[in-house]
Amino acid sequence: MSTQNLFQKEAIEKLKELSEKARTCMFVTELDQLPSNSRPMSLQECDDEGNLWFISSKESNKNMEIERDSRVQLYFMNNSDSEYLSVYGKAFIYDDKSTIEEKWSVFANAWFDGKDDPNVSILRIAPEDVYYWDTKAGKLVSLLSFATAIVTGNKTDNSDGVEGQISI
User: Taking all residues of the chain, what is their mean pLDDT, rounded to a whole number?
Assistant: First the structure.
């Protein structure tokens, strides 16, 4: 596996690509205690500055935990393409109408009574430390590489993989 650290525009493009493709992450709060609390969350958007946006209930444990400690860890996984992303950052809670209007999704109606529901809040995660794992040529090439290693008895060198730090 090779290392390729990414910076600025290229970093944000990779963050956007991997997070929006996976769409769902494990959203972890209370990082200073074990076990930490985690739950699946659906990403609304990764914006042009690399911020990750989510819709959440004001009354959720997650929001209460973020109010006490804004540090969060997000784990995105796209198994079908062997793409993975770990994001550590700070969470910010918004409940103003303009932010809710801008970030609202019709899919949130499954949890809320529309965007005017008084329990709607928007979470913005500002990444501070991001790491990714990806394949250079896609999952098919990776599978062929592993299959060849198994058939020949040789170990794979993981040369089809790439990983690295994303610095925004």
Answer: 89
